[in-house]
Amino acid sequence: MNQKVIYLLVGLSLVVAFMGGSLWTRFLVADKEKPEAQVAEVASPQPEAAAPQQPEVLGEEDMAAIVKNPAASKGSEDAPITIVEFSEYECPYCKKYIDESYFKILEEYGDEVFYVFRDYPLGFHKHSQNTAEAARCAGDQGKYWEYHDKLFEEQETWKAESDATDLLVSYAEELGLDKEKFSSCLTEGKFVDAIKSDFELGQKVGVSGTPSFFVNGRLLVGAQPYEVFRQAIEQELGK
Predict the structure, then answer these.
(1) Is the domain of 195 the same as that of 226?
(2) CA within 20 to 30 Å of 96's CA: 25, 105, 152, 191, which one?
């Protein structure tokens, strides 16, 4: 092989090596420049309860709407404090609120609070809709709040089932409800439209996660510590 050919081959090798190295460098730089937010979005799904936010106060019209014909209520409408909760039964944050704050609020403030519950079932929870319906069916027989407490108490049990219908019926029986009437209510979807209306109402007034509360119209989001609720109530009582 003559010398010119050798020089030519060496030159071509250097060019190929340079181009290959340049392409590899571009690949590495492009890979590093991928937005981290995209990775985080896949790895970290949105939470069920939004982070606490600055207080927002509903107007009179919206406040009147969220206390009208709720899933259930307790206390006197003339009480100085009205708490409206938008919630669902499969949400772990909602259970945390029940376990840590709900009963304390009722125990400490009792007759001073008019408490309203509204359904806000989240689509990515497979039992959120049927448990909301089941609670309303229990309410049809005068046992809404008892069934409400039972659902949260047994959350880990029924949420593990692919079909929780039998358990929902069994809870109704435990509470002394008419099994056939309860089952028919659940099967016929008696409260589907009412629950949908609750959800749409929640969206209209700014609910975006569960649990969300309006304390005399002032928005409070998430399973906040009891002291946060206590402070909000005391501020309203002090006005």
Answers:
(1) yes
(2) 191
Taking the model in full, what pTM does it have? 0.77
The residue type of 181 is K
Q: What is the DSSP-derived secondary structure letter of residue 57?
A: B
Strand order in the sheet with 218-221: 72-74, 113-119, 81-87, 212-215, 218-221
pLDDT digits (tens, 9 = 90+) for 19-40: 444 433 343 333 433 333 222 1
Q: 39 and 78 share a domain? A: no
What whole-number distance in Å separates Cα of residue 176 and Cα of residue 156?
22
Q: What is the pLDDT of residues 163-212, one digit of tens each?
A: 999 999 999 999 999 999 999 999 999 999 999 999 999 999 999 999 99
Q: Do 88 and 120 touch, CB atoms closer than 8 A?
A: yes
Number of domains in the chain: 2
